[in-house]
Design brief:
There is one protein chain. Helices cover about 5% and strands about 60% of the residues. The chain is elongated and about 50 Å long. An eight-stranded antiparallel β-barrel has the order 1-2-3-4-5-6-7-8. It has about 160 residues and is mainly β. The protein has one helix and eight strands; from the N terminus they run αββββββββ.
């Protein structure tokens, strides 16, 4: 009996606890306003540099990322493609970092410009420090204000973040 108890105690010392990663899956809409500067290149081609800021609205409960604030500095080579980075701030203050890019596609009715692409999770702070994942995106510019501010939304599908 002593040997069995001793072996069980020894086995318990060498047992590594299983760590279960948390995961967020779903679909969201990033409603944004873009502010920055639009340059008109020599051939009349517009090129925007600035930031797209707004709220991630998930179609189902996404835990701490539900209705999260998001800011994405980047560029839009209008009619060609766009790229940049994002910081998503969760409700508890932890941040998730993303890299995004998309290629221009034919705009849908009501769109001025559209592009399709992907985001890739590059890390974060707190619980998101070692996060991985990403999503597909379809971005739509719906209006441009008198001051050059762009307004639109980005559909995020196949959204997966493991942390």
């Amino acid at each position: 009996m002593i040997r069995t108890t001793g072996l069980l105690a020894l086995a318990a010392l060498f047992t590594v606890p299983t760590v279960h990663a948390a995961e967020i899956r779903g679909e969201a809409t990033f409603a944004w306003a873009g502010t920055g500067t639009t340059y008109t290149l020599g051939d009349g081609h517009p090129y925007f540099v600035g930031a797209f800021s707004g709220i991630n609205i998930f179609k189902a409960d996404a835990g701490v990322l539900s209705n999260s604030a998001i800011e994405c500095p980047g560029y839009n080579d209008v009619g060609v493609g766009a790229a940049g980075y994002c910081t998503v701030t969760a409700s508890d203050g932890d941040k998730l970092f993303l890299k995004w890019s998309c290629e221009a596609v034919a705009p849908a009715p009501g769109d001025l410009v559209a592009c399709d692409g992907k985001t890739i999770v590059t890390g974060g702070t707190g619980k998101f420090e070692k996060a991985t994942g990403g999503n597909d995106l379809a971005s739509h510019i719906r209006a441009i204000g008198a001051t050059g501010t762009a307004m639109g939304y980005t559909e995020l599908t196949n959204y997966v973040v493991t942390y």
